[in-house]
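Z., the sequence and structure:
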Amino acid sequence: MDAKDRMKISRQPMPEQDPKVRARNFDEVPLGYTPNMAKIEALRCIQCKNRPCMEGCPVEIDIPGFIALIAEGDFLGAIRKIKETNALPAVCGRVCPQETQCEELCVRGKKGEPVAIGRLERFVADYERAAGSVAIPAIAKPSGKRIAIVGSGPAGLTVAGDLIKLGHEVTIFEALHIPGGVLVYGIPEFRLPKAIVAAEIDYLKRLGVKVQSSHVIGRIASVDELLSEGFDAVFLGLGAGLPTFMNIPGENYNGVYSANEYLTRSNLMKAYLFPEYDTPIVKGKNVAVIGGGNVAVDAARTAMRLGADNVYLVYRRSRVEMPARDEEIHHAEEEGIQFHLLTAPLKYIGNEKGWVTGMECQRMELGEPDSSGRRRPIPIPGSEFIKEVDTVVVAIGTGANPLVQSTTPGLETNKWGYIIVDEETGQTTKKGVYAGGDIVTGAATVILAMGAGRKAARAMHEYAMAK
């Protein structure tokens, strides 16, 4: 087909669970493309010579290349093309914000809808796994160099995938009992099934990556001890898992959670599999979630699936300013999440037994833009009101856990506790130590953490080989 004929093809919609059904289960919401849908969608790509979509990909995937292979029906060739630069395609195809990255730069999007790059990436990753045809790429001969990675989130897994292929011995140290970082404790099952993450990590293990779970670096061993024990370089992919609260009255009432704890109990401790796993978690009937990002939307949709009658997402700005992905907001609305926009909590109200029973809120209006570029919320005097709730989840952001930084002399941090690095290499102020992802930038996206991991892996390879 020539470009003119390809331009006539409409974007293929993604089949999904019915909203009324999925609001009460933890099964994945999008059902994925069929092979025929994928081939039709791939034909929409007009194979631009200047490839603008690739400029929006932090992990440098050959996007037109893998899409062309899908159009030809070579699905396994397509996934192997992706894996040349991305070790986590099934994850990225599900949770990366393609609409503001590769798809935003797609030429097709200038006169219609862009090519569904993320959906195609997910399709070929799932196809390979379902077919049992996961290929192991060529590994360079052993370099004799040892690399330690602290944290098994998206940044750490990316570094591991890149460096193992270059012949280095790679060991990941994970503080929790299951590897995956935010991919397993933070993102709900209905958006990213745990089996998908486990399969991606299994792939890395088959490449030769060693994973040591329940290893809290900073307690079991320090970064200096890793370096003295024969590791040639260390990567810190610690994430940003320190809960943040608003410091308003009543936050100590029972039933008030941080989003970190609420989602960890549901995801990593498997409250979503009740009664098979009797995880202690409050299954509220009237749940308020404070915040407007992806984590807040994840928590609200989780509360609905745990049996809530009403879930209120309380956000101090308008829908336009919400940082959550449009697709996730749309799914939440379909599932019955009630949005209380331009609203901020002032205090939580509790009973004599110490349980939260309500919260006092205030209406807001938008003023001039603040430093974030979004319009500043301004309280409206006299607009206070009480909302009855029995559970509150605070999802207003996270901070840097100081454990590793406080036990690593020579590792400099900024005023918020995040590790200072060279943006192009991930090199910290401590020789042989690199860092990337949320512990450097603050809470951001999976794909940006992976992009930082790729840069750090290149620099760590050069450093180790020059030693």
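The first strand starts at residue 146 and ends at 150. DSSP finds 17 helices and 16 strands in the chain.

Let me know what you think.
H.
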